[in-house]
Amino acid sequence: MAPLRIFAALFLAATSASAFAPSSPVVSKVSRPSTSVASSVFDDAVQGFEEDYPQFATWGWGPSVQAEIWNGRHAMFGWVVMCACAYAEGHNLFPNADAPLNLKEWGTLSTVNSFTGGGKETITNERAIILIANVHAFFIGVAATIAPLPQADTLLLDPNHDMYEWQVERNSKLGGIMPDMKRSGVTPHAELMNGRMAMMGLITCIAYSGLQGQTMIATINQWIGGAYF
């Protein structure tokens, strides 16, 4: 278990770096670097999606650098939330954490499918609090998409937005199997790589938790040697 714990600790530390804003405005476009594998897989997928769904491709949807960046950001944010939840659980910060919600007060909103005993089960206060926190973060993202700030990196590409030219410039430089990591620090390349690690980490955590029959918070606590609880 020791190597696994060391790997998990290094992974969680690596996913902290990100870059959300440019240091200076840019205008020109640069060809995105790619490897032979990326050209035969990712680039072909991007081109095919643009031909089949040109409008969605204009917004940055589908297999694109824009989508990968935002998926990575959500994954990194998810790791922060899960680690915070593990800390809260370990320090008894959830009020009546194990108490189930009142079915008469909450109705069917308080029930979920039971993967262990079958049928339905009532969620606990702890799970309800985590759910509301995630819903809150989700609607913040929706608000940022519908009405983004002038200097914010928008979820969807908008030619009329102030950051559009910078977004196109940034996306044109990213991609491929391994981004350019020659420049250290808070850069778009580091953010892209950290996002990929966070997404792969989530997949690993979900799969491991399912195989072990335990929660993802319990898995995170196990990976770091029981540091949370």
Give a verbal description of the structure.
By secondary structure, the protein is mostly helical. Helix content is 56%, strand content 3%. The chain has helices at 2-14, 36-40, 42-52, 54-58, 65-90, 103-106, 125-146, 164-173, 188-212, 216-223; strands at 111-113, 120-122. The protein has a two-stranded antiparallel sheet. α5 crosses α9 (188-212), α5 packs across α10 and α9 (188-212) packs across α10. The chain is globular and about 50 Å long.
Task: Furnish the topology, listing elements before pairings.
Blueprint: H1 2-14, H2 36-40, H3 42-52, H4 54-58, H5 65-90, H6 103-106, E1 111-113, E2 120-122, H7 125-146, H8 164-173, H9 188-212, H10 216-223
Antiparallel strand pairs: 1-2
